[in-house]
Amino acid sequence: QVQLVESGGGLVQAGGSLRLSCALSGRTFSAYVMGWFRQAPGKERDIVATISRSGGRTYYPDSVSGRFTISRDNARDTVYLQMNVLKSEDTAVYYCAAVRELRDSVYYTKIQEFDYWGQGTQVTVSS
Question: What one-character-per-residue DSSP string does the chain give?
Answer without folding.
Answer: --EEEEE--EEEETT--EEEEEEEESS-GGGEEEEEEEE-TTS--EEEEEE-SSS--EE--TTTTTTEEEEEETTTTEEEEEE-S--GGG-EEEEEEEEE-S-TT----SGGG--EE---EEEEEE-
